Amino acid sequence: MTDIAAAPAATPxxxxxxxxxxxxxxxxxxxxxxxxxxxxxxxxxxxxxxxALAETSTATVVRLCxxxxxxxxxxxxxxxxxxxxxxxxxxxxxxxxxxxxxxVAAKVLASTSAxxxxxxxxxDTRQLERMADAVLAARxxxxxxxxxxxxxxxxxxxxxxxxxxxxxFIADVHTQHVAARMLGPGSLFLAISHTGSTVETLAAAGxxxxxxxxxxxxxxxxxxxxxxxxxxxxVAGSVETAYRVEAMASRIVHLAxxxxxxxxxxxxxxxxxxxxNLTEDVLIQHRL
Length: 288
Prior knowledge:
Blueprint: H1 13-20, H2 26-37, H3 39-43, H4 47-53, H5 58-67, H6 73-84, H7 101-122, H8 125-137, E1 140-144, H9 150-161, E2 167-169, H10 173-181, E3 187-193, H11 199-211, E4 214-219, H12 225-229, E5 232-235, H13 248-268, H14 272-284
Parallel strand pairs: 1-2, 1-3, 3-4, 4-5
Helix pairs in contact: 2-5, 4-5, 7-13, 9-13, 10-11
């Protein structure tokens, strides 16, 4: 097989891939051809979606990425975005290089509002209802997330706790993984992940499943390693420019979905009112 990674680092990724295409295995060649055919489209695909497009496995996609000298599929998408698009467009499609802060703010807020509106019209509320059922049926809920999804998981665990639900989030990924393996039947592991392909979140979700716990996820892609793994998946993303690498609008959408889950639980849980009153009594002590 051609050693793609041996090409000079300064060589654009698509040129390196195109030159190496004849030396790839048939499955890897299909992935490479899919990337070359629509590099901007690939930026919006999950690893599972690209694998399906190329009629191969996610492992083949990742193997090609490593052959390219990349650390994984996310770096492929980031590199494609950085090399395929002008720098001024990597932040947001509609933002121009001469926009002042007021115009940038207006455009970013408008795009975020549009993402929430799109989610409201497309959200599979049956899956949200199933997730609420799973939370109420669980003796314990553990949230799993890393990176920029971690603050959402911490907030969601806290808000479930205010309803009298035993919910936790452990920030350290090793401890999170171990705790997930200890959950057992009757518990719920609820993952939050934009891409649905973060190694640490997948490991913890898999450990929870192996323990016999129920599993659920809030994510942005309908087809990903995470949605393949969990019992319940609420998919809510945004038609986000690929160049906002951490997908901030999707984080806000996920926060809104978790808020909807919280309110659904508050309405349905009989003891929620008492728990919320106790929470307010405590919080009053921290206010002047």
